[in-house]
Design a protein that fits this description.
This protein is an all-alpha fold. The protein has five helices and no strands.
Length: about 120
């Protein structure tokens, strides 16, 4: 298990939602295989020291990719990378659930009152 400090909530507070997404996209661009346009286990191995993952085994790096690989192609595209970053941030996931609840409640209240 890898311990890390969850900095995404701090970034979200400073940058706002759109700014955070832009920064995640920039991070993806820096890490991705420039030829394939995705993040692979091999790319993570090459960048392990820079990312602070130098002590992770090849299997652990492969598991990281597998965790976020929604389409099963063995690599992370930009959308999968951003979704994975949110999933790895417990505080952002909690805040996202609160935002979703508020939006649903507002939508239900508007629907009940005939306001759209």
């Amino acid at each position: 298990m890898v311990d890390f400090e969850d900095l995404l909530p701090v970034m979200a507070d400073k940058l706002g939602g759109e700014g955070l997404i832009n920064e995640l996209c920039n991070g993806f661009q820096l890490l991705m295989d420039k030829v394939k346009g995705v993040i692979t286990t091999e790319i993570l191995k090459l960048n392990a020291a820079v990312l602070g993952f130098q002590d992770l085994t090849d299997d652990e790096l492969a598991s990281m990719v597998k965790e976020g690989d929604l389409d099963g192609d063995g690599a992370l595209n930009q959308m999968e990378f951003c979704v994975l970053m949110f999933r790895l941030s417990p505080q952002l996931m909690e805040e996202s659930q609160l935002w979703l609840r508020e939006a649903l409640n507002e939508e239900l209240n508007n629907a009940g009152s005939g306001i759209y």
